[in-house]
Design goal:
Helix content: 25-40%
Number of strands: 7
Largest sheet: 5 strands, mixed, barrel
Length: 237
């Protein structure tokens, strides 16, 4: 089991897409061969060369004193917008997920369908609660008042404010300078196809990965058939 702390970064190694098992899939409907095959493989969804470059860039860019670590893990997609129950978190952990979120995977599937190489990061914003919900007939609870019972039930409860704060805290490590920030989404465009780099802040780590990949050609950068994606809202299981 991988161990990550809040605001650590996780490279997506593989993903689990339960919605796809149930028939909710971004590639449903008529297929256009112009974009990709009817039945694309996803066993190679997350590009190994790009993941290798990411680890090299992390070592080159991150301070030795930084407590933030880079991991690789399996990402589970859920539809949201509600957070997962404790039972759902335990189920996802048991089937091999390391973190869970409400995004990323549909975009990855579409990108891979189009033959685009993908590197995806997730920011750990909170820890999922895996312990079972207390039973109402637990003898240790019988003498407790309503406030005490509510405190027990609220332990570890997911908070969107907590998620946003973790994103703000981590942003400083992902930005090259204050002047480099260009809002929630940073676009790198090149000749030919244009692909978005979906990242919380434009930053030195992303620029370093692009440079190590050997495809930066201007101050803004050039990517040809590659997506680097970072999503900020994920729970560690």
């Amino acid at each position: 089991m991988l161990q990550a702390r809040l605001t650590d970064i996780v490279e997506n190694l593989q993903h689990i897409f339960p919605a796809g098992f149930a028939g909710t899939h971004p590639l449903r409907g008529p297929n256009s061969e112009e974009f990709g095959p009817r039945f694309p493989a996803l066993s190679d969804a997350y590009d190994l060369e790009l993941r290798r470059h990411a680890h090299q860039a992390w070592k080159a860019v991150m301070s030795e004193n930084s407590k933030r670590r880079l991991h690789e893990g399996v990402y589970a997609f859920v539809g949201g917008p509600s957070y997962e129950t404790r039972a759902e978190c335990r189920m996802l952990r048991q089937i091999g997920a390391d973190l869970v979120g409400m995004s990323t995977v549909p975009e990855i599937i579409v990108a891979r369908h189009c033959g685009i190489r993908v590197l995806a990061f997730s920011l750990v914003t909170n820890n999922a609660v895996l312990s079972p919900v207390p039973r109402g007939d637990d003898h240790l609870l019988q003498a407790k008042d309503v406030r005490e019972l509510d405190t027990i039930l609220q332990e570890g409860k997911a908070s969107h404010e907590e998620v946003l704060e973790a994103g703000r805290t981590a942003a400083i490590d992902m930005q090259g300078s204050r002047n480099s920030s260009r809002g929630p989404y940073q676009m790198f465009t090149g000749s030919g196809s244009v692909h978005s780099v979906n990242i919380r802040e434009s930053g030195c780590l992303t620029k370093r990965i692009i440079e190590s990949h050997g495809r930066i050609g201007s101050a803004q950068g050039q990517l040809h058939g590659t997506i680097i994606m970072m999503k900020p809202l994920h729970e560690w299981l």
